[in-house]
Specification:
Blueprint: H1 2-16, E1 27-28, E2 33-37, E3 41-48, E4 56-57, H2 61-69, E5 72-75, H3 84-93, H4 107-120, H5 124-128, H6 132-148, H7 156-163, E6 168-171, H8 175-183, H9 187-196, H10 200-213, H11 216-224, H12 231-252, E7 257-264, H13 274-280, E8 285-287
Parallel strand pairs: 1-4, 3-7, 5-6, 5-7
Antiparallel strand pairs: 2-3, 2-8
Helix pairs in contact: 1-6, 1-9, 1-10, 3-8, 4-6, 6-9, 6-10, 10-11, 12-13
Length: 289
């Protein structure tokens, strides 16, 4: 049971790495950066945090050079028009026939969930109208915002998108597809994900610290490792996506160009990561930061 709880908490952290009252202090970060090369192609891989507190200084000279030199930006999702994400989420999140939100978590988690919702300005009725996975993501994002002032506007992708505006942009997934990974989870896993969202603020802080330090092993421990105890979550949120992205990168290496790939940091750490899988396929992958 303890392993299962750790696995669900890891999934919540991964989702947050999908958005305050107490702003975090300034942070200098040196996240991991990798380079895949052959004779005429360069693909940089940077692990991102989708939501960040303000005043996180992560664009080192090495990262800035990659942003400058790349002719194409590849992210998990393509560029979205304002409101598209909220509209897609709302359409898929609705579930009028489920029990009230507090009845979907163990008794011990009900008061903490209610407190988090109140601090975030979320009504229990609005959460009750959501599927369990959607409520979990909403609460996890709220916890990151409350505990550290994190927001998508400060996230790595938002900064890189602005820096590389006007260049070719590719999304590895569509938004409905990405939300569908959560929607396809069975209700039992969704409710455990919901329960874990109560403590997801602490998980986010740990993942943020590991990412900032460029600590690949710690990041894998926090995100990838515990998911092995929950095979359905690991497959849906991590390994199947890593495998698809690895194929895309390997195929892209067959054509000349200079590409920056920015995906959630948890996808680049651990034995089943994109980096490890590319190396297993015989591609030359160097960590350059």
């Amino acid at each position: 049971m303890a392993r299962r709880r750790r696995a669900i908490a890891s999934a919540a952290a991964l989702a947050v790495l999908a958005a305050g009252c107490d702003p975090a202090p300034p942070l200098t970060a040196r996240p991991a950066l990798y380079r895949v090369t052959d004779a005429d192609t360069v693909i940089w891989l940077i692990g991102t945090v989708h939501v960040l507190p303000p005043k996180v200084a992560w664009e080192t000279a090495t990262i800035l050079a990659a942003e400058r030199d790349a002719d194409t930006l590849v992210t998990e999702l393509p560029a979205l028009a304002p409101g598209d994400a909220a509209q897609a989420f709302a359409a898929m999140a609705r579930a009028p026939d489920l029990p009230p939100i507090l009845e979907r978590v163990p008794t011990a988690a009900r008061a903490p969930l209610a407190r988090l919702a109140k601090r975030a300005g979320l009504s229990l009725d609005s959460l009750s109208a959501m599927k369990s996975w959607a409520a979990a993501l909403t609460l996890s994002a709220a916890a990151a915002r409350i505990d550290g002032g994190a927001s998508p506007a400060n996230g790595v992708e938002s900064v890189i998108e602005a820096r590389m505006a006007g260049r070719k942009r590719i999304g590895l997934e569509t938004l409905p597809e990405q939300l569908g990974f959560f929607d396809a989870l069975d209700e039992r896993d969704q409710r455990r994900l919901l329960t874990s969202s109560v403590t997801s603020g602490a998980s986010f802080r740990q993942v943020l610290a590991a990412w900032a330090a460029g600590d690949e092993a710690r990041l894998a421990e926090l995100v990838s490792g515990p998911l092995r105890a929950a095979p359905a979550l690991e497959a849906a949120l991590l390994t199947r996506r890593n495998a698809r992205w690895t194929v895309w990168i390997a195929q892209r290496m067959a054509r000349p160009g200079r590409v920056l790939v920015a995906v959630g940091a948890g996808h680049l750490a651990g034995p089943k990561s994109v980096v490890a899988t590319l190396r297993a396929r015989g591609l030359r992958v160097q960590r350059i930061q």
